[in-house]
Amino acid sequence: MERAYQELVSVLGKELALFKELRSLLDQETKPLIEMDTKAIEANVKAKQTLELRLKILEQSRLQIVSQMAQALRIDPADATLKNLARFAPNGQRERLVRAREAFIRLTGEIQEKVEKNGQLVQSSLRVVQGLQQVIANALEEPATYEDAGKLRKSNTRPRRESRRI
Question: Domain 2-144 belongs to what topology?
């Protein structure tokens, strides 16, 4: 069982490192979102997708270890949380599991805040782009013309008969 706890702590350490990397990517994403730098945003999205794949691989390893541990401890796999596994862990591993759990709680909170902040920036950018689209659509729909003395008026786009505009 000691070996299983060592493997679990190892996988958790790797997962924590990837969570820190995700937090860093979210920090780096803020500036390109403000500046609407599409190339930097695209590169960041690709990096997050790669990170997601790496996290999924580690998650599968962790779930397999936890399942084996739950079976050995004769507990329901649904109850095999870090908090519960720490209760059964040898003293050296118990503290590591508790610290890992606390680090995950802290990091997920930070990541959630950054995701919400960046999501608000994305929504704001989308509103700006939609507003610009509407301005362009309106300008294309009814082009402005000028009367005498520089007065702006909308052009009449309806066809006229005889020597009038068509």
Answer: Methane Monooxygenase Hydroxylase; Chain G, domain 1 (1.20.58)
Measured over the CA atoms of residue 146, residue 148, residue 152 and residue 157, the dihedral's sign is: negative
Give phi and psi for 119, each to the nearest 5. Answer: -65, -40
Q: What is the pLDDT of residues 52-87, one digit of tens each?
A: 999 999 999 999 999 999 999 999 988 899 999 999
Report how far residue 154's alpha carbon sits from residue 126's, in angstroms, rounded to the nearest whole number.
Answer: 29
CA distance 94 to 97: 5
Burial class (CB in 10 A: 0-12, 13-18, 19+), 112: exposed
Instruction: Name which of 76, 97, 100 is nearest 86 in CA terms.
Output: 97
What pTM was computed for the model?
A: 0.74
**Dihedral over alpha carbons 44, 46, 47, 51 (to 10 degrees):** 140
143 φ/ψ angles, rounded to the nearest 5 degrees: -65, 145
Percent of the chain with pLDDT over 90: 59
